[in-house]
Records
---
Amino acid sequence: MSKETYDRQAVLLLKVENDLRSDNPEKAISRLEGAMQHDPMNPELSTRLGELYFQQGKFAKAGRCWFLYEINDERVEKAISAFRRSVNNNPVLMLQELVCRSFFRVSALNEGQLEKLGNLLKAARMKIGTTPKFLQPLEQQLAKRMIKTHYPPGGQLHVNGFH
C-alpha cells in the first residue's frame, strides 16, 4: 500500500470513528461502502464494514464482508450462515454477491481466498452444468493462478456448507 493510499484510508477510518462517536452509524457505513466500491479487496475496510453491519443486525451483509477472510469468531460464523441463507445456499448467487463489484481483483487475494472462490466456482458449475458467463473471467483468472480444488474421498464436493 502506498503512503498516499495509507493516508487516505487513515483519514477515512478517522471519519468513520467520528461518525460513530456522533451516533451516526449509517453515515459510517455509507463511507465504508463508498470506499469498498474502489477497493473491495481491502481487508481492513471489509472487516470494519462487516463489524458495523453486524452491530446493526444486518447479518447477511456482514457475512458477505467476512466470507473471504479467515476470522475465527462465533459472530462471523453466524453472519456467514446468514449470508448463505440470504442466497439460498446457491453458489452462483454467492459468487455474484462476492465478485460482481467494480474493481474486484483476483490478484489481491491470498491462497485461502482463492481456494474458497475456486470451490464456489466448482459448486456453481456442478449446480448448473456450466460456468455462468459472468463468472468466466473469474474462472480464467483462477486458472492462471493455478488454484486446484479437490474432491474428498467418495467424490462429493464439500464447499463451505454446500454438498
---
Amino acid sequence: MRAGTGLFGPPFTFTSSSCSSSVVASTATTCDATGVAQVASESNENVSGVPVTAGVFSDEHAGFFVGGDKAGMLFGREARGAKGAVWRRSDPGPIDRRYVRVPPLLVVEVEGREEGEAALCVKARWYFAHGVGVVWLVLPSTRDVLVLRHGGETRHAVGERLPEDPELPGLAPAVEGLFRQLAPR
C-alpha cells in the first residue's frame, strides 16, 4: 500500500493531488430523476473483475446487497449509475425498477476514455455528499485502485490487497483481480 498524497479536507473536499479540490470541470455523469446515467468505455467494459469481486462477496455474505454495472442510486431528484455498489441487505428499502434510494456502504467507479481520475474524484465528492462511506476508483491506465474515505485516501497497486472496511467484513480483494480482463503489462 502506498499512502495517498493527502487527506480529504472537511467536509467533502479533497486536498491531495489525487483528488484535488482544484478540479472544477469533468465529464461526470449526473442526471435528474427522469434520466439514466450512462458511461461506457473500452477500459470500463474490460474491467470485469469489479462485478465478479462484488458478486463473490455477496454470495459469501448474505447480509449484503450488490448492485452491478450501472448500479442506480436516486437521492432526491439526483440520480447516478455506478460501476458497482454494496448496501446492507437491511438498508435498501423499496427498490424501483432502476434505483436504490439509500446510500450504499461502498461505490466502485472505473476510469475510462471519457472519465479520468480527476472526473472520478468529482463523482466521489458527490457520493460522499450523499452519505456513501467508501469509494473505490479503479484505474486501468495505471492498474491502481484509489480507496477514498471521509478520513483520507490510499492508493493500491498490483500485488497488494485493498484494505478491509469494518462495515464490509471480508471484502479485501487483490488489486490484480480487478483487472483480470486487461492485457498483461
---
Amino acid sequence: MEELYHTEKISLERIASGDRKAFNELYTAHIEGVYNYIYLFTKSKDETEEILQGVFVSIWESREKLEAIRSFKHYLSRASKNKLINHIRHIKIKNRVLAERGQRVGRKEGKVSVFKSDPYCRATLHQYQPGKAW
C-alpha cells in the first residue's frame, strides 16, 4: 500500500512539473472508470465524453496543485462529480430559458432527462462518496 502511494505521489509530482507522458499514463489508468461513472448518469456517449474531457482538462490546467493531493483517486472522484453536477446545472438553466421562450430541448441537444425521471440516478449521485471504488 505504501509503495502504491509513493508511486502515485511521484507521478503527481511529475505531472505538476508539466510531464505530459506522466499525465497520459494517469489518464490511461483512470479513463475507463471515470467514463463508466459519468455514463451511468448521462446515458449519452457525447455528453459523457464532453464531461470527461472537462475533468481531465481541469486537472491538467491546475496540475501545480497535484503535489499536495493525498489521494488522486479521491481527487478524481470529486472532480468528476463536480463536472457532472455543473453539466446538469447548465442543462437545467438552458432548459429553463428555452421553456420561457416556449421551446423545448430534445435529448440530442443536451437534455439529461434521466435525472428528473429516475430516482435511482438522483439518489446515487447524491449519495456518491468520493474515493469510493468506481
---
Amino acid sequence: MYANCPPKPETAQALFTQVPLVCDREGLIGRELFAIDGVKLPSNASKELSGSDPTFLTPYVSEPSYFPQRSESRRSSMKLERLGAERRAELSRLFRLTFSTSEGEEEGRLIGDLVDKLAAVIDDRDVIAVGAIEDGVLIGALFLTRLRFNDDYLVYMLAPVAVSTAHQRRGVGQALIEFGLLGLKALGAAVAVTYGDPAYYRRVGFEPLSENVIRAPMELSMPEGWLGQSLSDFSIEARRDRPHCVEAFLDSAYW
C-alpha cells in the first residue's frame, strides 16, 4: 500500500547514513569496496548480509539505539565526533573564550560554567557532546541534552553551540548541527528543540515552536527564540506537561 509513496529526502538521508555506521559498529568495515548508489565505501560486508535482507536491516532501522562516534567533514582536515568527559577542560575553555569575545566576559563565564557542568556528566544518552576537531584542536562543539516528559517521548535540546572565533563563517557550526541531528535520528529521537537566534537556526531546519506544542523547561525571557523541528515523517506532537531538563540547565539565567 506504500509502493507509490516515496520517503521524504531527509528520511532517506538518515537511512543511508545509518547503513555504513551500522556496518562499522558490527565490524564489517574492511579493505574491500561496495557501493551505495554509486558511492564507494570500504567494507567486507558479506553478500548474505547485503541488500534488503530483513534480518540485517530491521533491528537497526526500526529501533535505532546509538549515536555515531564520528564522521568525516566535507572539509578534509576537520573531523566531527562525539566527545567524552575527558574533554571537559577543552570544552569549558572553548565556550568561555568564544562567548566572552562575542557577548562579553560575564556571558562568557556564565556559559563556560554551564558547559563545565554539562561536560562533567556526559553519558551519551541524557547528555551528548559533539565536537569539530581540526589538526587535533577542538574548534567547535555543541551539546544535546534530553528533555524528559511523563512518558517516553524522546526530545533533545540542542544548546549551547560554539565555534572558535578564528574558525567562524566557514560552515563549522552548520556541519556540527547537521551531524548532531543525524545522530539524534539514529537514536530514534522524535523532536529536536533549541533556544537561540531564529535567523541562524532556520538554516538547519528549525522553526518557531509554540509553547502550546512543547513547553520550555523554564519560563522564557525570549519566547521567539524557542525553536523546534521534527526528526521523523510526523508532525511534532503537542504535549501538555512541562518537560524536565538536565540539572545543569536548572537556572533561570539560561532562559
